[in-house]
Amino acid sequence: MAISRKPKPAASEGASVDIDALIHKGGSVAGEGSSTGKQKLIPVMLRLPPAMLEKVDASVQTRVVPTARTTWIMEAIAEKLEREGE
After folding, report:
1. Rounded Cα gap, residues 12 and 21, in angstroms
2. What is the Cα–Cα distance from 66 to 41, expressed in whole angstroms?
3. For residue 48, which of 21, 29, 27, 76 has the smallest C-alpha distance?
4. Are 60 and 67 a contacting pair, CB within 8 Å?
5. How far apart are CA 57 and CA 51, in angstroms?
């Protein structure tokens, strides 16, 4: 089996300048600057009495379109804020 040397890259005089320009050009971090319209959610610990949580779960289960408990609670908070804001 013949052993050959690693091929040498084609060197051009302007290549180092182009690489430096690319490096110093910079850019944005992935995900930064792209506004998808979604707000960042902050986790909040919520303590509820078991009876109230059972009522929330019952209401969530009666919905025609399946909804997460968290979504239901967020909707309830939004409704309350709208009522008090008026």
Report:
1. 15
2. 21
3. 76
4. yes
5. 10
Domain ranges across the chain: 48-60+68-86
Measure the CA dihedral 58/64/70/71, to 10°: -140
Tell me the two tokens of residue 77.
């908070």
Question: Tokens standing for 8?
Answer: 């040498």
User: What is the sign, positive or negative, of the torsion defined by CA atoms of 69, 73, 78, 82?
Assistant: positive
Residue range 16-37, pLDDT digits in tens = 567 777 777 777 777 665 556 6
Question: For tokens 């919905």, what's the residue?
Answer: 63
* pLDDT tens-digit series, residues 38-62: 789 899 999 999 999 999 999 999 9
How many Cα atoms are found within 13 Å in the side-chain-facing hemisphere of 20? 5
Q: Which residue has the tokens 């239901």?
A: 72
